[in-house]
């Protein structure tokens, strides 16, 4: 599991930062990629990475401001020409369905794959045997959601050395025991799975927030998260401006991470008013409150190891 940032700017594209899009790469976990927002130029940004659009399985839109959705119709259209044949589900606020369907209809775009569009409300919006995704409404000028992605606990490690002491040879029975099944040996000995499998491995939690000012919902989504991705449109001293425009400062983002007991904070959605030197100053402001703060840059990759989930 890892995050790759495709766009980290706010409002309008800048020379060093495109507008918002984030890829959650779940290639080992489910062989797919989940995208969060698709600002203008997202498909162009993807060309500079190893991401294959046909691997994109789900797209989560936080809100309907242009810098978060103007790249979506183009990306959906191009995916058909790039070998994408599997289903894609788009989640987003009310209005996302009309936006996508109108864009594709007027441009007479034909998709070679099934497209499902889900207009979300607060609560669990997706769940299977491995992952759960929850949405809560943040505080922005329009409806804006944050998403909490929870990886369910993984099976414990198979205690191979202990198992081999019983005389059992590696093979299908090892897999059965790993999966929680008991096995009876040829001599009638019962091998109970619980005695040869370590404790479950705690799953990871990733919180990816849309545009927001400091609010209670952000803290709930970030609670005990391995990684919190939080906007930091403004520097720490611009709290009045952040409040006026329903955005957050570096300090406010860091406070949210600290209160929520997150492991790592990644700052994104950086205003074009800050150059690269000032960007370094922004992350230092956050570090003063929450040490494990990092600044997102376009194309930067942040691994999310299992150890992050076990640091609580």
Can you walk through the features of this model?
- This protein has 312 residues and is of the alpha/beta class.
- The chain has two domains: 2-154 and 200-310, Metallo-beta-lactamase, Chain A (4-Layer Sandwich), CATH 3.60.15; 160-195, no CATH class.
- The chain is built from eleven helices and 16 strands.
- The strands form three sheets. The protein has a seven-stranded mixed sheet with strand order 6-5-4-3-2-1-16. It has a seven-stranded mixed sheet with strand order 7-8-9-12-13-14-15, with helices on one face.
Largest beta sheet: what is the strand line-up?
6-5-4-3-2-1-16
CATH superfamily name of the largest domain? Ribonuclease Z/Hydroxyacylglutathione hydrolase-like
Low-confidence stretches: none
Structural class: alpha/beta
Measured as a percent range, the helix fraction is 25-40%
Gyration radius over CA: 22 Å
Distance between the termini: 19 Å
Number of domains: 2
The number of helical elements comes to: 11
Q: Which architecture of the largest domain does the CATH hierarchy give at level 2? A: 4-Layer Sandwich
- Strand portion, in percent? 15-25%
| Average pLDDT for all residues | 94
List how many beta strands DSSP finds.
16
Any idea what the shape is?
globular
**Order of helical and strand elements:** EEHEHEHHEHEEEEHHEEEHEHHEHEE
- Give the CATH topology of the largest domain: Metallo-beta-lactamase, Chain A
**What does the main sheet amount to?**
7 strands, mixed
* CATH C-level of the largest domain: Alpha Beta
């Amino acid at each position: 599991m890892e995050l790759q940032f495709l766009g980290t700017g706010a409002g309008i594209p800048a020379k060093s930062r495109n507008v918002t899009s984030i890829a959650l790469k779940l290639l080992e976990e489910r062989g797919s990629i989940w995208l969060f927002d698709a600002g203008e130029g997202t498909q162009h940004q993807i060309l500079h990475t190893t991401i294959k659009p046909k691997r994109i399985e789900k797209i989560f839109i936080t809100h309907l401001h242009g810098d978060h959705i103007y790249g979506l119709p183009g990306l959906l259209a191009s995916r058909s020409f790039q070998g994408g044949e599997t289903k894609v589900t788009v989640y987003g606020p009310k209005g996302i369905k009309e936006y996508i369907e109108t864009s594709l209809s007027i441009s007479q775009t034909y998709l070679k794959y099934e497209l499902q569009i889900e207009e979300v409300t607060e609560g669990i919006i997706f769940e299977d045997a491995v992952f759960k995704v929850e949405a809560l409404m943040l505080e922005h000028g329009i409806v804006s959601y944050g998403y909490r992605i929870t990886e369910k606990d993984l099976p414990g490690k198979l205690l191979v050395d202990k198992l081999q002491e019983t005389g059992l040879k590696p093979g299908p029975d090892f897999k059965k025991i790993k999966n929680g099944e008991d096995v009876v040996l040829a001599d009638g000995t019962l091998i109970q799975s619980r005695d040869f499998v370590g404790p479950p491995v705690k799953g990871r939690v990733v919180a990816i927030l849309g545009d927001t000012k400091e609010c209670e919902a952000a803290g709930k989504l970030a609670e005990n998260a391995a990684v919190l991705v939080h906007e930091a449109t403004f520097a720490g001293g611009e709290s009045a401006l952040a409040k006026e425009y329903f955005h957050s400062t570096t300090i406010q983002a860091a406070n949210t991470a600290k209160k929520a007991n997150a492991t790592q904070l990644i700052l994104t959605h950086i205003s074009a008013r800050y150059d690269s030197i000032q960007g370094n100053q922004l992350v230092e402001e956050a570090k003063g409150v929450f040490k494990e703060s990092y600044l997102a840059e376009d194309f930067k990759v942040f691994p999310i190891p299992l150890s992050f989930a076990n640091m609580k």
